Amino acid sequence: MSLATTAFVFPGQGSQEVGMCTDLLAANDDARDLFAAADRILGIPLSAIIRDGPEEVLRLTANTQPAILLASVALHRALGLRPAAVAGHSLGEYSAAVAAGAIDFADALALVHKRGRYMQEAVADGEGAMIAILGVDEDAIRAAIAEQGGAVDVANFNAPGNIVIAGARAATLRVAEIAGGKSRELAVSAPFHSRLMGPAEERLAADLDATSIADPDVPLYTNVDAAPATTAAQIRDGLKRQVTRSVRWTDSVRRMATDGIDTFVEVGPGRVLTALIRRIERDAVRHNVLDGASVAATRTALAD
Fold it and tell me: Annotated active-site positions, please?
């Protein structure tokens, strides 16, 4: 197994859990320092929220996004390896940018804290919805959106037969009904990656323009283009457009495989991306880095 054909991928919102990284913090001074730095940077007790919850506080978008980035970066630093490429699912693209040396950790933490707040404020509570639709292809879902005609967009192309729609609540529920298949409303505070996030995109774009971004050390496969970004300008542009546009995760994984990636390491809480990659590229080797034990196990596996 070679790091020359390995990509590190970073999860997005929904992967968080109270107590994540507990064993890593107990054994790793660098991780403890990073968590303490996050509290200072944001001026909130983020490390305590991660450690103790309560869950409803951690689940607030403005807390969730920096919490997942913090956990993912801590795990990546503990792993201490450089892959051939990186990618992240939605919010995870910021973790990927940090891992690739494109954005400083402190800047990324501040950006995602604002990103979460902007997204939460873009649509009044209860007026939007996100619904996962399983077992229905893209064409059928697009046809259902066209038939409904409301403010609904495809938010995530997660894997074949796993697509998420987002938009105005009543219209989104109706599209799911028309499309058929098995549907499930997601427990999120806003319709991410839809046209209704326009105000959030505009506010975040100004912050991204004011943030120093460097060319990445390794290619970063962006959500919006499902293609490798190799310059600071491409990364900045991708992060701007990402807010209102689809997460093209299926295409991103397939493009990485076409470009020679045969091993994917999910770095961050949860195993969501690993499960999706199994459906997209069945022959790919997959690893998870989500706690101290899996850091050690993955280092050993990648060294073989």
Answer: 90, 193
